[in-house]
Automatic annotation (TrEMBL):
Superkingdom field: Bacteria
MF (Gene Ontology): ATP binding; glucose-1-phosphate adenylyltransferase activity
Protein's name in the database: Glucose-1-phosphate adenylyltransferase
Family membership: Belongs to the bacterial/plant glucose-1-phosphate adenylyltransferase family.
Length: 422
């Protein structure tokens, strides 16, 4: 796979549905599971599949993503492996931003084709899953396909949010519809007994594609007005080319909005999570930080993931993810929350100076109550702060926080004064 396949990871657009987490960073750079970034998921899936050459395409708020990739993915000088950023750039031929997924690949194609490969694997940068791409590529070759689309069985309720496909007895895709609202009964597929028993009768596109090299070059050159794979390129290709459906039945979720992001993170705290971070065959790679172990004093913990370098004195933490360098004060209760942590520790001198001025420290203070919330990185939550998310709160965007689907998101670097109630 190392020589045959090149990976391209799409960094996504502005990521407005994940705002305010994407106000200062691109979507692939959003922290997940306390210590990783979203982009680590597709990169790790590639590395575990023997694909060691990857480009990450991005254009919005790419500084933190660039820094993360530069500090994380180092390979031997004697290896051809790389993970490189390709940011949107103005050229003589093109002076505009990426206009869609296909346009992003088209604009970067002059960089991509300078490498030798037979197949190109195109991935999304905002999905949570563990997948061996070797199986998909082998099926692609066996079927003599020009494109292979990874598909996943979904229920009728979920089908309206995805591109839905129909395939023949040889798994060749015969038709496609984008986010159908009516006539769903016409799109039912034979997804297998196990999937049908769960009511998952529709084949949804996962936004994961394999293209033959020359075929992709040609199809992108044929009609430069087509900007998007899912909406334009693939529907046309299905009528003209051999397009294979590769059915995947494992855990997969699209991190499209705050609600799905919150659920995906808290789902990791389940006794047997659907996404298995402890599977050595599907390791997740990320930046190697030389952090001390976490220190916990007088805290009752239940269904909680704790990353490295935390200092926790809370009275109770339940159903929560605590990110790197999280500091939580005494008598604080945290439930149903993702605390992203911080990028640095404050020195003892800084702490003494802040205390003398009555300022809040980086982290969460004493006697706080936090429920149904995401606390972004480097926040300063004072003492006696109450943050209680839920359906009783209306959606809104405020100076220090936003509310999305009842989830309170404290913005990166926000200073929440002592005694604040949200």
């Amino acid at each position: 796979m190392t020589d045959k396949v090149l990976g391209v990871i799409l960094g996504g657009g502005q990521g407005s549905r994940l705002s305010p987490l994407t106000q200062t960073r691109s979507k692939p750079a959003v922290p997940i599971a306390g210590k990783y970034r979203l982009v680590d998921i597709p990169i790790s899936n590639c590395l575990n599949s023997g694909i060691h050459r990857m480009f990450v395409l991005t254009q919005f708020n790419s500084a933190s993503l660039n820094k993360h990739i530069k500090n994380t993915y180092h390979f031997s000088h004697f290896s051809t492996a790389f993970v490189d950023i390709l940011a949107a750039e103005q050229t003589v031929q093109n002076s505009g931003w990426f206009q869609g997924t296909a346009d992003a690949v088209r604009q970067c194609m002059h960089h991509i084709v300078s490498h030798e490969f037979d197949y190109i694997l195109i991935l999304s940068g905002d999905q949570l899953y563990q997948m061996d791409f070797k199986d998909m590529i082998e099926k692609h070759i066996e079927a003599n396909a020009e494109i292979t689309i990874a598909t996943i069985p979904v229920t009728a309720k979920d089908a309206t949010d995805f591109g839905i496909l129909k395939a023949d007895d040889e798994n060749m895709i015969t038709s496609f519809i984008e986010k159908p609202k009516t006539g769903l009964e016409d799109w039912i597929s034979d997804t297998g007994e196990e999937m049908q028993a769960e009511g998952r009768n529709f084949l949804a596109s996962m936004g994961i594609y394999v293209f033959n090299r020359e075929y992709l070059i040609n199809i992108l050159n044929e009609n430069e007005d087509e900007k998007d794979f899912g909406k334009e390129i693939l529907p046309r290709a299905i009528t003209q080319s051999r397009v294979l459906s590769f059915q995947y039945e494992g855990y997969w979720t699209d991190i499209g909005n705050i609600s799905s992001f919150f659920e995906a993170n808290l789902g990791l705290t389940d006794e047997i999570p659907k996404f298995n971070m402890f599977d050595s065959n599907h390791a997740i790679f990320t930046r190697a930080r030389m952090l001390p172990p976490s220190k916990i004093s007088g805290t009752t913990l239940d269904k909680t993931i704790i990353a490295e370098g935390c200092i926790i004195q809370a009275s109770k933490v339940e159903h929560a993810v605590l990110g790197i360098r999280s500091r939580i004060g005494k008598d604080t209760v945290i439930t149903n929350a993702y605390i992203m942590g911080s990028d640095r520790y404050q020195t003892l001198e800084e702490i003494q100076e802040e205390n003398s001025k009555g300022n809040s420290l980086i982290g969460i203070g004493d006697r706080c109550f936090i429920n149904n919330a995401i606390i972004d990185k480097n926040c300063r939550i004072g003492n006696d702060v109450k943050i209680n998310g839920g359906d009783h709160l209306e959606d809104g965007d405020f100076e220090l926080y936003a509310v999305k689907d009842g989830i309170v998101v404290i913005k990166k670097g926000a200073v929440v004064p002592s005694g604040t109630v949200i």
